[in-house]
Design goal:
There is one protein chain. By secondary structure, the chain is an all-alpha fold. The chain starts with a helix and ends with a helix. Helix content is 79%, strand content 0%. The longest helix is centred in the middle third of the chain and has 40 residues. 50% of the residues are buried. Helix 5 crosses helix 15. It is globular.
């Protein structure tokens, strides 16, 4: 049983850790969906994203608490009935896309930092994912929560360095008050592109006891998920055109900042977030398979089935098999390049998540919660 503070913060910290990898952490997604509408317009769009995540997380967390659906498979079966398998298809597509993004980012980040070939970064990422996933639910939950604090600290330090060096330029960009059309749709689109992440962290909700706790956790999760984007977006204000033109805007900012030690620290933290994101997606997939094969019994519990039974050997192989197979597929997807993956990959999945998860949860899901309460 977790303490009160941990119970409130852990879902949001894990949510942020799953979100941050790939295009988010490098600033590519932040520039694409927020910075392209001007600095002030981007801040407004970011507020829209945070609000959407907060509302959906609050409703989803209460749904999971009421119906005790702590994996996305059982939740979507409860919400959609026989049509729940459609959400599986949407999740599988997003899984491969995200793994492709984090692998592409890992290779590029390590190459930029050390000059090593990109495949070294991909190999280190894969190793970290395997170690973390094999550690089980508690290890993943603990690692993602603790690393989130490290990330907030380094991102704050990064923003402070930018303001110390380019504060007047950022202030001037804010005073311009540029708000180009599309900031609202940009905020809504980015929120929609990451809706699946909400359903991936349900295992962190098992200690919630009341509706107040579920709603509070949901609102905090939405705010914590959007929080890292704020320093990234503000930092881009020092040279917004250059940030928008770069495939990895954070790198463009560091080229102007000329602080190699901070850049190295930032890249190390970013690499850790890539491991977290990949592990979070694979963890959600494992929970889904676990539910289907063992009717809710965990791989850890299933390992204690009597020797000689049909299931006794499978759980020992399940995690390495799933992790290895999915990671290999992600490496193949990463060959398409980071920009193409972000621009072309998210669109169709966005509509699937919106139609299969967000809209049903905010309509039918709310009605089901109210009926269960009565």
């Amino acid at each position: 049983m977790r303490g009160r503070r941990t119970r409130y913060l852990t879902p949001g910290l894990v949510f942020q850790s799953v979100l941050i990898g790939g295009g988010y952490g490098t600033g590519a997604e932040i520039a694409r969906y927020f910075g392209s509408h001007g600095l002030l317009g981007g801040l407004l769009g970011l507020g829209v994203t945070a609000a959407v995540w907060a509302i959906l997380c609050a409703v989803t967390f209460e749904f999971a608490r009421v119906f005790r659906t702590y994996d996305y498979g059982s939740m979507m079966h409860r919400l959609l009935g026989r049509a729940g398998f459609l959400y599986d298809l949407c999740f599988y597509a997003m899984l491969l896309l995200v793994l492709g993004v984090v692998n592409a980012t890992a290779g590029a980040a390590l190459h930029a930092l050390t000059g090593l070939p990109p495949w070294v970064g991909v190999a280190l990422l894969s190793f970290g994912v395997v170690v973390l996933v094999l550690g089980g639910t508690e290890a993943i939950e603990r690692a993602l929560s603790l690393w989130a604090y490290v990330l907030y600290a380094v991102f704050t330090l990064f923003l402070a360095a930018v303001f110390l060096r380019f504060g007047p330029a950022v202030a001037a960009e804010l005073r311009r008050g540029e708000i180009t059309p599309g900031w609202l749709s940009g905020g809504l689109k980015y929120a929609a592109y990451n809706l699946l992440c909400v359903s991936m962290i349900l295992y962190t909700l098992r200690d919630l006891k009341t509706r107040r706790e579920a709603v509070t956790c949901g609102v905090l999760a939405g705010l914590l998920g959007a929080a890292p984007a704020l320093p990234l977006l503000l930092a881009m204000g020092c040279d917004l055109p250059a940030a928008l033109a770069s495939e990895t805007p954070v790198t463009a900012i560091f080229e102007r900042l000329e602080t190699p030690w901070l850049y190295a620290l930032f890249e190390i933290v970013l690499f850790g977030t890539l491991v977290e994101t990949a592990a979070g997606f694979i963890k959600a997939l494992e929970d889904r398979i676990e539910r289907a094969l063992f009717r809710g019994r965990s791989f850890e519990l299933a390992q204690h089935t009597p020797a000689g039974s049909a299931r006794s050997s499978w759980p020992w192989l399940a995690r390495p098999l799933i992790t290895g197979t999915v990671t290999a597929l992600g490496i193949c997807v990463s060959t398409f390049g980071l920009t193409d993956l972000i621009d072309k990959g998210y669109g169709a999945i966005c509509y699937g998540a919106l139609c299969l998860f967000a809209l049903p949860m905010l309509t039918a899901g709310v009605r089901m919660i109210r009926r269960a309460g009565r």
